[in-house]
Amino acid sequence: xGTYTTLLLDVDxxxxxxxxxxxxxxxxxxxxxxxxxxDSVKETxxxxxxxxxxxxxxxxxxxxxxxYSRFVELFRALGIDGDGRAFEDExxxxxxxGAFLLPGAEEACAHCARFCDLYIxxxxxxxxxxxxxxxxxxxxYMKGIFVSEDAGYQKPMKAYFDYVFARIPxxxxxxxxxxxxxxxxxxxxxxxxxIDTCWYCPDGGQMPGDVRVNYxxxxxxxxxxxxx
Length: 228
What we know:
Layout: E1 6-9, H1 18-33, H2 39-57, H3 63-67, H4 70-78, H5 84-95, H6 105-112, E2 117-122, H7 126-136, E3 142-147, H8 148-151, H9 158-165, E4 176-180, H10 183-193, E5 196-200, E6 215-217, H11 223-226
Parallel strand pairs: 1-2, 1-4, 2-3, 4-5, 5-6
Helix pairs in contact: 1-5, 2-4, 4-5
């Protein structure tokens, strides 16, 4: 186990319950417009959204293309006569109000902040992520927040991490650990950047052989054993 002075933390699925935020935002926005939102509609949305974010992580499309095409595509698939781009703006506003902490998130951040510098590394929309982190109270533990929209690059791109590292005073790669739930963005990103990785996997899961994981945790409280 290394002695870490810098901890990079993912947000959605790691510290905050994005599924709860997403569900609340979708329900509120769909209800406002009188659109039907059932399990079939949600499944269609998730399929479209996941495919777009996958293309974004591979560097094939921009964040703006993800954000402003997903509801356009959804409405087209569902036969809804609505403005998908304007709907996205309303959805983002609601999403920014969703600050649902995952179990142990605040306790883990409070503990780790006593021993090392904490930074947020997240793909997403800046105003939404800043709002959620502020409302959750987690921002007070952070030395900095790095959102892909501001960086111009995204996890797992090495350019994103170069952007982050250049803005961390006295950065030392060998004393840095990234913690996240996504193998494709957090863990692969850490591999690309040459830093140690911690996979947060509360439900268990099969680890593919093409990524390197230094630590695996099932509960955020386990970070206390890594950062002490």
